[in-house]
Amino acid sequence: MASDKVLVVDDEMAMCKALSEFFTNFGYEVATAHDGAAAIEMAKKSAYSVAIMDLVMPGMSGMETVRLLKEIDPDIEVILFTGYPSLESSLDAIRQQVFDYICKPTDMETLQRVVQHAAERRRLIIENRELTQQLKIERDHLKQEVTVVKRVIERRIEESCSLVGKSEAIRKIRHFVAQVASSDMTVLIQGESGTGKDVVARLIHKSSGRDPNSFVKINCPAIPETLLESELFGYEPGAFTGAVKRKPGRFELASGGTIFLDEIGELPMTIQAKLLQVIEHKEFARLGSGETIRVDVRIIAATNAEIEKMVAQGRFRPDIFYRLNIYSIKVPPLRRRSEDIPLLAQHFLNLYGNTYGRPDLKISSETMAILVRHRWSGNVRELESVIRRFTLDGDEDSVRQSLESSKGRDDSITVAGTLRDTEIRTILSVLAKTRWNQCKAAQILGISYSSLRRRITKYDLKNR
Known about the structure:
The protein has helices at about 15-25, 35-45, 60-70, 85-95, 110-160, 170-180, 195-205, 225-235, 250-255, 270-280, 305-310, 320-325, 340-355, 365-375, 380-395, 395-435, 440-445, 450-460, and strands at about 5-10, 30-35, 50-55, 75-80, 100-105, 185-190, 215-220, 235, 245-250, 260, 285, 295, 300-305, 325-330. The chain has about 475 residues and is an alpha/beta fold. The chain starts with a strand and ends in a 6-residue tail after the last helix. It folds into three domains: about 5-125, Rossmann fold; about 160-330, Rossmann fold, CATH 3.40.50; about 335-395, Helicase, Ruva Protein, domain 3 (Orthogonal Bundle). About 25% of the residues are buried. Helix 5 (about 110-160) crosses helix 6 (about 170-180), helix 13 (about 340-355) crosses helix 15 (about 380-395) and helix 17 (about 440-445) crosses helix 18 (about 450-460). A hairpin with an 8-residue loop joins strand 11 and strand 12.
């Protein structure tokens, strides 16, 4: 306790001497003052852990001395030691955050314990403040390091030719990838067919620090429902007819890396239920086995379907959706980022020009303008096909002709979609007015009952 200094403030010299000798024997460094003014001057020159203060002294009162001491050193602990206790002074002591209020006379052992506890409290407060400050410094350093790492990842992603573009949408996707890549968070990528969802998924895996060779892609609609479960989870010999030896599933093969479930909206409901266990606990059993297998796998899913609508219609399990949709990335269609089309065209021209031995092939500004104006219903995949075909024959006229012919198809698709939406809105409006009395609705619409029934089934309309 040699580091704890005690200041005794009392106008009685005998009391000062007695307390000084007593606490010196316990290893404290003790100083004495006979009035408040002297105590204030001493506190300005030296820091004290504890002050033992008489309440009633000539000149400056004990309470006023406490207030001034706290202004000089807010951490000093004060013990009021008085022979004139009162309710008013005890309340004042509480307001001044006095450590204890002791009435004279008291035994010295009690006073010693109070001083010891006061000194310990002061040490703890100071240590806690220092630790808090150190934690803040370390937290700030960590934030800076995380920011630097994210910037490095973003720069590497930008330098990578896999996600080509300079639009705001592409910059945001690069930022999202850098933000989520190093975590184990499940990601749902949404966008139209051909927008590059596969590219984003591979970029997340590439930037994650996981096993670079453990990226396993499952094209959900491409595998028959009867085989999908065994493909995902594997099987044991004898699990079904033709199962002659053990086969690991795709989740096992992806352990340590990433599994990419492409077009997950097409996943059958029966498989969705079994997938929930894997997403939530990263464990499953092979077909024909009761043994639980745990895997360290990052799950990325993608869909071109309006999956929220599928959830509302009961065609996709909400518990699966909420677990997949922890972090969502939306990839915009190419028509909404036309400024990226020249970069993408040049990228594919370089790629296939080198492949097909035509590295010097160029696209004229007139043809590039047509590419930029085109709607690209097939998105980046369609653009890639057009440029790839161009690198084979180098004929810009054929490119322009193919784009002009496809323009009519795009327009007809757009018109058809608009007409379909209009018809759905009209039918739903009339059904709502008739409270879903389909006979009355058919009469108002001027069509037969059976025709209305066919449209309700075709458009999957429901009474909401």
